[in-house]
Amino acid sequence: MPTCDKNERRAVEAAEKGLVMKRSLAILLLLIVGGMPTAASSAAIRPKQAIAQAKAEWLADIRAAAHSGDRSTRFPSPPREVLIKRIDKAAKLYGFRVVSIQMLHSLQDATVIVISSDRKQSLARSTPKIIDLFDPRHPTRTNPSSYAYEAYFLVAQTTRGVPFLATFNRWRGPHAGGGQWAESETLYPFPHG
Question: pLDDT tens digit string along 115-129?
């Protein structure tokens, strides 16, 4: 058996520990972002932690797409005032309160929207329609995905500030995609497997 000095042993142990932690985090994010209803994703992780982890991954993805993604794709990126009007209209139609709206700029605008309501089931069922109102589809040659914004991250929380669902997308290739998270199976806004 080869011998190692104390520093080498510590380095190997630290590397192994880091690898295990990275794998654990990757599995956890897969469970959360993929919408897999498991005890690990709903009991071990608090809603705010789940949202923070999913948002961090989403931000990393849109930054990576801005750096190495398809720069020929163009999104209309309506200004903040238009987004606010659209969200206000959705709030009136679907009975929620707007907590915050952020506009991030990777290559083009990406939105982060937080809304609140204690009518969880109703809001979960309305989420696809809410998204259609603030991020409507209009296909063009330079925007085949046809969405208004490059990316969005939508969080719905109770009036006490506890998240109960999130949905997010990013449309700039090469790795366009998205996900959703909900505190329970009945609150997922989109079909999932």
Answer: 999 999 999 999 999
